[in-house]
Amino acid sequence: xxxxATNPEARPEALPxxxxxxxxxxxxxxxxxAALLGPTSRDRLPDAIGHVAEAHRAHHPxxxxxxxxxxxxxxxxxxxxxxxKSGEPYITHPLAVTLILAELGAETTTLTASLLHDTVExxxxxxxxxxxxxxxxxxxxxxxxxxxxxxxxxxAAEPETFRKMLVATGNDVRVMSIKLADRLHNMRTLGxxxxxxxxxxxxxxxxxLIPLAERLGVQALKTELEDLVFAILHPEEYAxxxxxxxxxAGDRDPLPAIAGAVRAVLRDAxxxxxxxxxxxxFVSVHRISLKRGExxxxxxxxxxxxxxxxADCYGVLGELHTCFTPVVSEFxxxxxxxxxxxxQSLHTAFAxxxxxxxxVIVRTRQMHRVAEAxxxxxxxxxxxxxxAAAAATSPAVTSPAAAxxxxxxxxxxxxxxxxxxxDWQQSAxxxxxxWNVLRSELAQDREITVFRADGGTLGLxxxxxxxxxxxxxxxxxAHGCIGARVNGRLTSLSSRLSDGDTVQLLLSHDxxxxxxxxxxxHAKTPAARxxxxxxxxxxxxxxxxAAAAPRPPLSVIGARGGGGNAVADLPDAPVRLAxxxxxxPPDAVEGFVVRGGAVTVHRVHCxxxxxxxxxxxxxVAVHWRATADCRVTLLAESFGRPHLLADLTxxxxxxxxxxxxxxxxxxxxxxxxxxxxxQLPDATGLQALMRAMRDxxxxxxxxxx
Length: 705
Prior knowledge:
The protein is α+β, with helices and mostly antiparallel strands. The chain is built from 25 helices and 20 strands. The strands form five sheets. Strands 1, 2, 3, 4, 5 and 6 form a six-stranded mixed beta sheet that branches. Strand 18 (about 660-665) and strand 19 (about 670-680) form a beta hairpin. The longest helix is centred in the N-terminal third of the chain and has 21 residues, at about 195-215. Residues about 1-45, about 155, about 385-415 and about 545-560 have low confidence and may be disordered.
C-alpha cells in the first residue's frame, strides 16, 4: 500500500497535516441539534459550522467564509424537519461530509457544494436557485453530485449508472471527491441498516468507490473505507486483526526508539526533517500478517520522514542506507516515477541491531498533502494557480477549458487513466461490456510509462502489451499494426511492456489490414479490447490477416564457401566461416575443429560457441588477415510492396558491394524477409551498407544473420 493511514482505533476523518493528528473527534449528533437550535446571527458563522470553518482556515487562512455561512443557512433551512435513519437531524450529514473535505484541505467552492449536495435531491431547492445564489461553479458541482446520488446500485442498473458516475467525475473531479466523503460518512453510520443492506452497500464500496478513491489519490478516505468494508464483509478476519493489535498493545513498541535513532542520524547529517510513527490501519495489518506470519511490534506501523525539498528526500535515503542495514527488496522510488494517482514518496526499509525491520516512507510536506488528499489537495482545477500546481505535481496535465455547466470540461488534474476511461466508455458496445471492463480497469493498481519512437510518452496499465501501445498511440489505425520494436529490437505484438521501454510500432499501409482474433488474448486496455472486438464483429469472414504461420527455414547460399580473411592457428587446416553468425573483421572470433579436420569460425557470442564448450570441445585460436575484403549475410525485414527487391539491390550496388546470393521468403502478415550473402571490398563499410539498406522505403530492420 502506498498510503499508511489512520489510527485504526481513532479513525479520524482525515490527517492531511501531522500537526493536526491530535484533533478531537467531533460529536456530530450535538452539532446536528445545534444546527436546529443554535444562533444564526448574520454577523458570524453559526456555531454548528464553526468546526468546518476552523478546519478550512487551517489550510486556507485567507478564505472568505461568508459563502460557507450562506450555504449552511440554505442547507439547514431546506433540510429542517428531515431526520436520518439513525435518528439524527439530516443537516448533520452535509456538515459531516463538509468537515471531512475541509480536513483534507478542499477549497471553498468544493465545501460550498458539499453543504448543498443533497438540497436539490431531497428538498425544494432548485439548481437555478443554487446558480443564482452561489454561481456557475457551485451549480455545476451540485448538479454532478445530484446525478451521482440518483444512481441505483442494484445489479441490473450498475453498468449504466456507473457510466454516469464516470462521466460526472470526468467533468469535474470534485464531484467524486464529495461522493467519496458522502460514502465515508454513510459507512460510518451504516450500523442502523439491516445486515443484508450493509453487505450490499459495502460490496459496491469495495468494487468501485474504493478503487476510485485510490485512483484519485485520496488515501485518507480510501484507507478508512477499506477498514469499514473489512469489518462488514469479513467480520471474522476483522475480529482476528483487532485481537492482534490488542495483543501487542501492552508490549513495548520499538518504533518510537527507532524513530529517535533516525532523528539523531539526520540531525548529525544536518538534514532538517520531521520523523513520526504512523500506525497501520486494520486492512494493512491484516495484509502484512498474511505476508509475514507472526507479527512483531515494528510491523504495526511505519516511520514517516517529512522534509522540505525533493533533494532532501534522497539525502535522507542515503543516510538511512549508510547508517543502517537496508532491505534492498523494499526500496521503491515513486518520486522519480510517480504513481498514476499523483502519489510521490521514497519507500525503504532497514534492519536494526535488535533484529527489527522498520519500514520508512520519505516525502516532502507537499507530497504528504497530495498523498493524503490526492486531487482534493490541488484545489480548484479551473484556476491558473491550480493548473500550475497540477503541472508541477503531475507530468501529464492537460490545459483547462472554459467552464460550462452543459459541456464537458477539460480538467488539468485529470489523471491519464480517467481520460482513457472517458474515451473508451463512449464506444463501449453494450452496458455489460462497459461494466466488465470498468471493474477490470479499476482493479489495476499500477501504471507504467513507455516512450514512443518520436519522443512522446504513453501511460499504460502494468502488464500492457505492444497491442495496447498501438491503440493508445494510433487509435483505429492500429488495426494495421504488423509488428513492433521494443528498445530497438524486433518483437511480437503480444510482448508485454515494462516501465521505461521505448516502443516503435510498425504499421502496414494496406487499408484492408485488420487485427487477428488472438489479439484479444494479449490486449489489456479497454480501448484496445473494444476496438479489436468491434473490428472482428464487423468482419465475420475474417478479412484480416491470418495468424502468423511458422516461417520456413532460412536458406543462406554461399555463406559456408570459404574462410574469407580468417586464419586458424592450425597449420594446413581448411577454414570456413560459420553460416549461423557470419563473422567479419574485426569481430572477435573462435574456431572449432569439425568432422573432416576443417576449422569453422564463429563470433565469440554465437550460441554455437557455448554449445561447443558445453560438450568439451576445445577452441582453436583464429585471427584476421590484413586484407580488408569479407563475405557476410544480412537479413532485411520489410513491408511487402512492388519493386522492393529492385530498390534493395540498387542500394547495395551503390555501396560497391557484390551480391553473391539472395533469398526472399513468402510474405507473412504483409511482412517479407530477405537474406543477402554479400562480398564487401572493405569490412569497415558494413555499417554504412546496413544504413543504406534501412533507408530503402518499406524496410524497417536490417541485421546480421
